[in-house]
Design a protein that fits this description.
single chain; 220 residues; alpha/beta; TIM Barrel; 8-stranded parallel barrel; globular; schiff base; Aldolase_TIM; DeoC/FbaB/LacD_aldolase
Length: 220
């Protein structure tokens, strides 16, 4: 039996996230200080707030966020600029409508354009907005992301009216690409119990804004 993850194990799975439109440089500096104090893996900030003092942390950002309705060229340019400004990981939003329409070639091509702008060792995570997709579209989007060279698939932006992460979506994503791609659960995870359920469903990374509350509740 695999041992249950400790608080430190969970912290090393966390992208400590600040994507509020009103966030400024002072907020990001505070985020990074808190991230180091909590022992998390990464911080995730808006691209306009790069570069940041990411000493001891992985620096992540978003692309085509939050709608995904940017052209592939715009997404690729945004990702390239973010990498140039110090981002080590990029979380890009797919065109959800293309996935719902079953046009997975378009999803693959869109992600591939961003992949070319985020060369290894840069990490590319693909936000599929799982709550807005049917199961069939979710599977297809994950496979398209894999075919385009993604490193992770990610549930949600946290900004969609359809909702955030669910254990059903995480389990389906894990069944589809788990063991080959990482699975990032993000969107509405606010308690240790919710985080534990996501990990048990197959999540290998967590996107959290309320990281301290989740970690403080882990052993409670």
């Amino acid at each position: 039996m695999t041992a249950a993850p400790t608080r430190a194990d969970v912290a090393r799975m966390v992208d400590h996230t600040l994507l509020k439109p009103e966030a400024g440089p002072a907020d990001v500096a505070a985020l990074c200080d808190e991230a180091r104090a909590l022992g998390v893996l990464a911080v995730c900030v808006s691209p306009s707030l790069l570069p940041v003092d990411g000493t001891g942390l992985v620096v992540a950002t978003v692309c085509g966020f939050p709608s995904g309705k940017h052209t592939s060229a715009v997404k690729a340019a945004e990702a390239a600029e973010s990498v140039a400004r110090g981002a080590q990981e990029v979380d890009v939003v797919i065109d959800v409508a293309a996935a719902l329409a079953g046009d997975f070639d378009a999803v693959r091509a869109d992600v591939a354009a961003v992949r070319a702008a985020v060369p290894a060792p840069g990490v590319l995570k693909v936000i599929v907005e799982s709550a807005a997709l049917t199961d069939e579209a979710l599977v297809g989007a994950c496979l398209a992301a894999e075919a385009a060279g993604a490193d992770f698939v990610k549930t949600s932006t946290g900004f969609s009216a359809a909702g955030g992460a669910s254990t059903h979506a995480v389990a389906l994503m894990h069944a589809t690409v788990g063991g080959r791609l990482g699975i990032k659960a993000s969107g509405g995870i606010r308690t240790a119990a919710q985080a534990r359920a996501m990990i048990e469903a197959g999540a290998t990374r967590l996107g959290l804004s309320g990281t301290r509350a989740v970690l403080d509740g882990w052993d409670a």
